[in-house]
Specification:
single chain; mainly beta; five-stranded antiparallel β-sheet; four-stranded antiparallel β-sheet; globular
């Protein structure tokens, strides 16, 4: 039996992210119903998420065009443009209705 969020869905959503140069930020947020995968097309993005174990570790990477990063299901994460040019990325989430909760 499917729950109300799985019924009648294709199970995926896509979004384009455009981050302004010198600090364009997609602020910390979470998707309580989806894992997210991010593909950088242009620019440089500093990305990260906070683990949910007792350590609450911050896992970060700097991504360049062609790099891919996965934000695990329901973990707080962010994307920040550290470059001097626009940063463009595509994000895919494993739900038609992933929800987003700003932190």
């Amino acid at each position: 039996m499917l729950d109300k969020y799985q019924e009648y869905t294709l199970g995926i959503s896509l979004a384009r992210l455009d981050n302004a140069p010198y600090g364009g930020l997609n602020p910390p947020h979470t998707h309580p119903r989806a894992t997210e995968i991010l593909l950088v097309l242009e620019g440089t993005l500093y990305v990260g998420f906070v683990t949910s174990n007792q350590d609450n570790r911050l896992i970060t990477r700097v991504l360049y065009p062609g790099d891919v990063f996965v934000f695990p299901f329901d973990l707080i994460h962010l994307e920040f443009n550290t470059g001097k040019t626009n940063a463009v990325a595509f994000a895919g989430v494993g739900s038609q209705n992933p929800s987003a909760i700003a932190i």
